[in-house]
Specification:
Number of strands: 4
Helix content: 40-55%
Order of helices and strands: HHEHEHHEHHHEHHH
Number of helices: 11
Length: 248
Amino acid sequence: MDAHFLATPFHRNLPVLMGLLSIWYNNFFGSQSVAILPYDQYLDGFPAYLQQLTMESNGKDVTLIGTDVTRDTAPICWGEQGTNGQHSFHQLLHQGTRIVPCDFIVFSQALHPNRHQHDMLVANAFAQAEALAFGKTAEQVKAEGTADWMVPHLVQKGNRPSNMIVAPRLTPETLGKLVALYEHSVYTQAAIWNINPFDQWGVELGKQLADTILTELESVDQPELDHDSSTNALIRRYRRVQQADRAA
C-alpha cells in the first residue's frame, strides 16, 4: 500500500481517491461526519482506531504557515461493526436529514467454517450499500399495496454515498494494508488543506492544565485557585467530597 500510494497515478491511487472523496463530501456537500462499517467482528475496534487517526491528525484550524484555514477540516469519524450498526444507527444513514458517507469493509472468506453465516453477513453489507445508493421510490412502495398514508414513511430517497472495500481475507497483511490506506488518505486530505497532521497541540494544552489541576486536587493545603469560575467550582466540589470521604 505504501508503494501503491507513492507510485500509482492519482486517477487509480486508492488513498488519493478516498482522500479526495472525503474532501468532496465534507467541503462541498457539508457532510460533517463519515461512518466506518466493518462487517467483521474481528474489526470491532477499527472504527475507534480510525477516529484517533483522522480526528487527531486533521482536527486543525491553522495552516502550515500559521494562517486560519478557510474550509472545514477533518470530518467526525465514527462507526460500528456492521450488523450491530444496522440495529442502532443505520436508520439515520438511510432516512436522516444529514448525508453521512460510509465506508463498508467486507471480506470474501471467513475466519470460521460457517459459510452460510458469512454469506448472510456479506449479503447484508451489499444490501445496505444498495439501499443507500438507490433507496425506494413512492411507485415501488405503492406497487406493494401499501396504504397511501404509509407511503411517505417507506420512501427512501437514496443517493447516499458509500465506498465498498472488499478484501479476500482478514490477515495481518490485509489489516496492515487497511491501516496504511487510511493513513495515506488522511495525509492526502492534510496536504490539500495545507495543515500539519503530525502534531496535537490542542491535546497538549489539556495535558498541561491537567498537571496543575492534579496538584490542586491532591494538595492538603488547598492552594488558592486561579482558573475560570467554572473550573474553580468543579475543583472545590471535588475536594469537598474527597475531604468528606477522608473524614468518614
